[in-house]
Design a protein that fits this description.
Strand order of the largest sheet: 6-7-8-3-9-10
Bound molecules: adenosine-5'-triphosphate
Strand content: 15-25%
Number of helices: 8
Largest sheet: 6 strands, mixed
Order of helices and strands: EEEHEEHEHHHEHEHEEH
CATH topology: Rossmann fold
Number of strands: 10
Shape: globular
CATH superfamily: P-loop containing nucleotide triphosphate hydrolases
Distance between the termini: 48 Å
Structural class: alpha/beta
CATH class: Alpha Beta
Length: about 250
């Protein structure tokens, strides 16, 4: 049976060498399989660090990180890379496509790197679902920003990962195109039971998620279930004010 928790952090701390403050300070959070999760917080609150540690791209100083029930925090290379390739998909703000490869070969690349035989039928299906049927032979340079992000999403979905981590996936897109990409992320969760953990600064984007987790100063301070954009924005203001008050020493 499929594990119901896709990714879990237990009491994770992380301090970058030379940095005074903890980027993550005892973070515990579990993201359930088949749910769309957003992570918000002021600049420097630890969102990217959370994503990097959860995805096995960076190592926590202490605590545990479980992906599909398996602890990845203890894995050494090359086992860690292997686990990441098998379990995790990524969608970045800057797309991170290979310019010299066609759409089709970009989509198949993670499976090839993982040494797996690509599931071409499934790859064709996800390319169709993201609206890129007929564009398989194009190079990224021939595509718009929104289309490039669709390729990145198809690439993530094609490998059937346990979880897709998305870092500001709409950050480089205009409003309408960003909305279309969010529609596709939502569809990936609702139609394909994908698990998504998305970092965003945009309350409207976060409002598409089932759950929004708020970070401040490396800690999870609160969360909202299926909120409206207005509720997310209000909570962000409260969290940002609280962070500012802490920094100026006026917090009670
Ligand atoms: N490579 C690094 N070296 C030193 N300090 C770092 C490094 N990366 C992040 N930090 C620090 O760790 C803390 C958390 O940073 P992080 O990038 O995770 O925050 P964030 O919420 O993603 O910020 P933003 O919204 O600006 O992207 C900050 O104090 C930041 O300055």
């Amino acid at each position: 049976m499929r594990n119901t928790v896709a990714v879990e952090l237990i009491d994770v701390t992380k301090t970058y060498p030379g940095a005074g403050v903890r980027a993550l300070d005892g973070v515990s959070v579990a993201f359930r399989a088949g749910t769309f999760n957003a992570v918000m917080g002021p600049s420097g609150s630890g969102k990217s660090t959370l994503l990097q540690c959860a995805a096995g791209l960076d190592r926590a100083d202490s605590g545990r990180v479980l992906l599909a029930g398996a602890e990845i925090g203890q894995l050494r290379e090359p086992k860690l890379t292997e686990a990441r390739r098998k379990l995790v998909g990524f969608v970045f703000q800057s797309y991170n496509l290979i310019d010299s490869l066609s759409v089709w070969h970009n989509v198949l690349l993670p499976q090839r790197l993982a040494g797996a035989r690509p599931d071409r039928a499934w790859a064709r299906e996800v390319v169709r679902r993201v609206g890129l049927a007929g564009r398989e032979d194009d190079r990224p340079a021939q595509l718009s920003g929104g289309q490039r992000q669709r390729v990145a999403l198809a690439r993530a979905l094609a490998a059937r990962p346990e979880v897709i981590f998305a870092d500001e996936p709409t950050g480089a897109l205009d409003l309408t195109t960003g909305r279309e990409v969010l529609d596709l992320l939502r569809e990936a969760v609702d139609g394909l039971r994908t698990t998504i953990v998305m970092v965003t600064h945009d309350p409207a984007a976060a409002a598409r998620a089932d759950r929004v987790v708020f970070l401040a100063d490396g800690r999870i301070v609160t969360e909202l279930a299926s909120p409206s954009a207005a509720q997310v924005a209000a909570q962000m203001t409260a969290v940002t004010d609280r962070t500012a008050a802490t920094m100026t020493g006026s917090a009670r």
